[in-house]
Amino acid sequence: MNKDVLKDLTYGMYVISTKYNGKDVGCFVNTVSQITAQDVVISVSVNKENFTNKAIKESKIFAVSILSCDSTPDVIGKFGFFSSEQMDKFSEFKTIEEQGIKVIDEKICGYLICELIQVVDIDTHDVFIAKVKNMVKMEDKGPMTYDYYHTVIKGKAPKKAPTYIEEIVDNSIKYKCEICGYIHDESKEKIKFEDLPDDWKCPICGVGKETFTKI
Ligand code: FE
To answer: CATH classification of 3-151 is 2.30.110.10, yes or no?
Structure first.
């Protein structure tokens, strides 16, 4: 069985958001799919350990922001690698408020407002089936695909992502971000990690050099 074939399945890049006990919560997902056309229904798979999973089951309403290809990695970093339980992920980003929910409005193609109609329990994840109540089209730069995120931005899949695959690394000198898993590969970047300026930040999640360890 070759798990590499799973990398050929295509995905987009989305932030889903909702409200839980008056708090704005959200996370990054790549598994939004349209299921029906006339009365539009979508599905999205969310890890049960994500705080946003619990929040959506409670609120039964959520927004999907569709990231465009010029979307900045810090949105992906903040929503993909930190928990809403411990911080306000929305404070540093532009948002739109709709039906009491904060929708991330940082270089997005548009957004959907969705009402939860069914939850399908699949072991580690829940698949949320939801009716789309509103759709708003914004930027026209084209959506960011998961493949673009991996090959151009060099981003990694969060451990809780349905598409996470454990990677085996080779022996060249590399430093790994302990938060998001981004790897600074000295042979590819053509600069030694120690020569990077002191204020250099992880291009994905924005933490400093001190959060990197040599692997
Ligand atoms: Fe990072």
So the answer is: yes
Q: Confidence class of residue 65 from pLDDT cuts 50, 70 and 90?
A: very high
Interval between CA 67 and ligand 1 midpoint (Å): 19
How many angstroms does the Cα of residue 203 sit away from the middle of ligand 1?
7
**d(CA 206, ligand 1 centre) in Å:** 6
Complete DSSP assignment for 65-131: EEEBTT--HHHHHHHHHS-TTTS-TTTTS-EEEETTEEEE-SSEEEEEEEEEEEEEEETTEEEEEEE
- Mean pLDDT on 199-215: 90
Do the first three CATH levels of 3-151 and 174-214 match, i.e. the same topology?
Answer: no
Distance (angstroms) between ligand 1 centre and the Cα of 198 equals 15
Mean pLDDT (whole number) for 1-21: 92
**Gap from CA of 130 to ligand 1 centroid (Å):** 32
147 Ramachandran zone, left/alpha/beta (phi>0; psi -120 to 50)? alpha
Q: What is the identity of the amino acid at 93?
A: F
On average, the pLDDT of the chain sits at: 90
Q: What is the pTM of this model?
A: 0.81
Tokens of 74: 């810090």
Whole-number Å distance, alpha carbon 57 to ligand 1 midpoint, is 29
CATH fold group of domain 174-214:
Rubrerythrin, domain 2 (2.20.28)
Domain map (residue ranges) of the chain? 3-151, 174-214
**Segment 159-205, tens digit of pLDDT:** 777 777 665 545 688 999 988 888 999 888 888 999 999 999 998 88
